[in-house]
Design brief:
This protein has three domains: 94 residues, Alpha-Beta Plaits (2-Layer Sandwich), CATH 3.30.70; 138 residues, 2-Layer Sandwich (Alpha-Beta Plaits), CATH 3.30.70; 91 residues. The protein has 343 residues and is of the alpha+beta class. Helix content is 20%, strand content 32%. It is built from seven helices and 16 strands.
């Protein structure tokens, strides 16, 4: 048995998204069927990003297990001969059997394209959202700047989502107009909530139209209320550009905004399996969520022991539940996170 990683590109126009659906054909369904036919064995792919109906991709990632003797790097050529023209496996390679596309630290990149001119262009209708109102790109850039960094993006997530945590980090966001009247909103982040990119695009378009000033984006962000943001832009303008997986574990992970500031020290992780969460500042109402997600991140990264250092004002205590963990007092005034069942 071996595991094959694939980089998959597709035109999402004719599909009901990535994930298997009872009411329409999906990318996952086509890949499963094509690979099963090619390899003469049942195949079920696992995708990194479950893109919605009509969303495109240049670099989604998926894995599957197989007994086939076809070399991993050659499999893309074989499967592409059987796939429809709107789906292609760009690369394939063998990876360790425990490698999972959704259980790795990564940076995802998305682009949202807007055709901004007086009359629509038929050849672009499937890959960009047409907006005939003149959009001020500079104001859109100013509004987008408020979204950079680590924030609670509740306002930019569709209701009915299943995410336990709505804090995400945007490492980069740009808004540019090309000579072809296409405005491209490009976002790089640690992860994205359901419809997050499309809601950001809809919000920035309202800023570009002059409906809202750029600084209103910060007010929307702070409201943590989906009703405050713009409409969800149509799926056809969205493309998943690619995923960059972390090759080496970062020695430190930091997060800072006006509500919290912390450092997750992982320098001792390889030698002693220990990480230290140093909270420099945190509003009391944010402490439980901060400890919960960062302790979880530390264990996700391989820690077996996680210490927490925090000012007394944060109010850490052993009676509170922090997700799957509780805290017990340790040496030097620190706390140690332990699983609830062990307390």
């Amino acid at each position: 048995m071996k595991r094959i990683k694939m980089t998959v590109a597709y035109d999402g126009t004719g599909y009901c998204g990535w994930q298997l659906q009872p009411n329409g054909v999906t990318i996952e369904e086509i890949l499963n069927g094509t690979l099963s036919e090619l390899l003469k064995e049942p195949v079920c792919v696992i995708g990194a990003s479950r893109t919605d109906s009509g969303v495109h991709a240049l670099g989604n990632v998926a894995v599957f297990d197989t007994e086939s003797r076809i070399p991993g790097e050659k499999l893309c050529y074989a499967v592409n001969q059987k796939l429809p023209e709107d789906i292609r496996v760009l690369e394939s390679e063998e990876v360790p059997l425990d490698w999972h596309p959704r259980k790795q630290n990564s940076v995802k990149t998305y682009e949202y394209k807007i055709l901004n001119c007086r009359i629509s262009v038929p050849t672009r209708r499937l890959y960009a959202y047409f907006c005939y109102y003149s959009l001020d790109v500079e104001k859109m850039r100013q509004g987008a700047a408020y979204l950079l960094g680590e924030h609670d993006f509740s306002s930019f997530c569709s209701s009915g989502h299943q995410a336990e945590e709505t804090v995400r980090t945007l490492y980069d966001i740009s808004v540019d107009r090309g000579t072809d009247d296409i405005i491209t909103i490009r976002l790089k982040g640690s992860g994205f909530l359901y419809n997050m990119v499309r809601i950001i695009a809809g919000t920035l378009m309202k800023v570009g139209m002059g409906v809202w000033p750029p600084e209103h984006v910060k007010e929307i962000l702070e409201a943590r209320d989906r009703k405050e943001a713009g409409e969800t832009a149509p799926a056809r303008g969205l493309t998943m550009v690619g995923i960059e997986y972390e090759k080496e574990l970062a020695l430190t992970v930091t997060g800072e905004n006006e509500h919290w500031s912390y450092i997750l020290d992982q320098a001792e992780l390889e030698t002693s399996k220990t990480s230290v969460l140093k909270i420099l500042f945190c509003e009391p109402q944010e402490v439980i969520r901060l400890v919960r997600r960062m302790v979880h991140q530390a264990y996700w990264n391989g820690a077996e022991t996680v210490f927490i250092e925090a000012p007394e004002a944060c109010g850490l205590n052993g009676a509170e539940t922090y997700g799957f963990y509780r805290l017990v007092q340790a040496e030097n005034g620190r706390w140690r996170a332990v699983e609830k069942r062990l307390v």
